[in-house]
Amino acid sequence: MTPNDSTNHDFKGSDASLCAADQRAVDLLIEHGFDLAAATKANPADRERLAAAHAFFMRVEAYPVQAPDSALIDATLARIDRATESTAQRMRIGSGAAPSLGRGRWADFIAVACVAVLLISVGLPVLNEMRHRREVEFCASNMRTIGSALTAYHGDFNSRPIAAGLAPDLSKLTSWSNYDNSKHLDVLHQKGYCLPECLCCANDAQRDGYASQVPNERLNRMWAMQSHLPLLADRNPLVMLTALGHPIGATVENSLDHGGRGQNVLFSDLAVMFEISPLITIQLGDIGGPTPENIWIPADRGGIEAGVTNGLSSPAQWSEFDVFLLQ
Fold first, then answer.
1. Which of 12, 66, 148, 234 matches a 20 to 30 Å C-alpha distance to 278?
2. Could you tell me the sign of the dihedral formed by the alpha carbons of 254, 256, 259, 264, in that order?
3. Domain that holds residue 162
4. Within-domain flag for 81
5. pLDDT on residue 308
6. Contact call for residues 116 and 108 (beta carbons, < 8 A)
7. pLDDT of amino acid 272
8. Is residue 146 in some structural domain?
9. So what's the pLDDT on residue 225?
10. What is the reported pLDDT for 125?
């Protein structure tokens, strides 16, 4: 039925289009479930159009169609069930879900593992180095604070701080390990020149304190003249080894405060340097050239540092013409 044909209500070709009145008739049939009587009762004026549309749809309904194969129906439903189960497996999270790694997933897993190994192998050394530098700088800051406190103390008392009862009476001292040299620095915080936490490295779990110069008049005068002499350092490792009964021999040990990498050293001109060895070249007097000095070992009265062959020797043999740092 063409749009301009208002009398012939014959639905013929698939390419024919419906006019507005025929469209209303079809809609009315659909609304009433293709019940022609109910649709006609609802709109008697369109009786002919409704009858023509109804006759056309009835021919479509009566068109012979072969029944579908039951095997095809079963195969289709089984395929739908498999697809649904596969989707459910991928979405399931929990201990009951067994992991399944296909070829592509193994490749992803290996790639992630390689990245993790690379981060660990490169990242950890970098983090350790950053932590080491931070600890070294924190310790150096402590030493600068002590240097300022020593300067203020010397300005007030015209001497370095000496703890009462700790003047080095070497004739009665059997071992340097029994000489608590760190108590000299304790005077600084006792008199309010610095806080007590500044008097040892943060890595010093025993809080033995920094190793400082064993007091003697000659070095005190040179310190007052702002000579460049080692005044303070991290803990002396040889004293610790001697206290534990370990032989020292011809060894050069760094302080344990920074993992054996070296030690911070405060010099008498208030410079702070991180030395990678305890062997430091210094100028002990006005006459003579620079002298290599092991800041951990005391020199005997013959001028030879006894620690090279005989450990820390006896305190009574100390020549006092020496820089010897001891906690």
1. 148
2. negative
3. 133-326
4. no
5. 47
6. no
7. 93
8. yes
9. 64
10. 77
The two most distant CA atoms of the chain are separated, in Å, by 141
Token representation of residue 325 = 């740092």
Low-confidence ranges of the chain (pLDDT < 50): 1-8, 11-14, 95, 97-98, 306-310
Report if residue 37 sits inside a domain: yes
40 and 186 together in one domain: no
Q: Tell me: do 303 and 188 sit in the same domain.
A: yes
Q: Do both 50 and 139 map to the same domain?
A: no
Q: What angle do CA 241, 247, 249 make, to 5 degrees?
A: 110
Same domain for 174 and 313? yes
pLDDT of residue 326: 85
| Distant-in-sequence contacts of 144-148, Cβ < 8 A, 24+ apart | 144/266, 144/270, 144/272, 145/194, 145/198, 146/185, 146/188, 146/194, 146/198, 146/199, 146/210, 146/232, 146/266, 147/231, 147/232, 147/266, 147/270, 147/272, 148/194, 148/270
Cα 238 from chain centroid (whole Å): 34
DSSP secondary structure code for residue 98 in this structure: P
In contact, 151 and 270? CB cutoff 8 Å? yes
Those residues whose C-beta lies under 8 Å from the C-beta of residue 47, and which sit 6 or more positions away, are 40
What pLDDT does 105 receive?
Answer: 72
Say how far apart CA 168 and CA 298 lie, in whole Å: 13
| Helical H segments across 98-182, by residue range | 103-157
Q: Do 178 and 290 fall within a single domain? A: yes
Token representation of residue 100: 């399944």
The residue ranges of DSSP E strands in the chain, in sequence order, are: 211-213, 230-233, 263-267, 272-275, 279-282, 291-294, 325-326
Is 51 a member of any domain?
yes
Q: Are residues 44 and 144 in the same domain?
A: no
CA distances from 140 to 93, 228, 265 (A): 53, 17, 8
Handedness of CA 29, 33, 35, 40 (dihedral sign): negative
- The two tokens of residue 241 are 């080894």
Q: Is the pTM of this model over 0.70?
A: no
Query: How many domains in the chain?
Result: 2
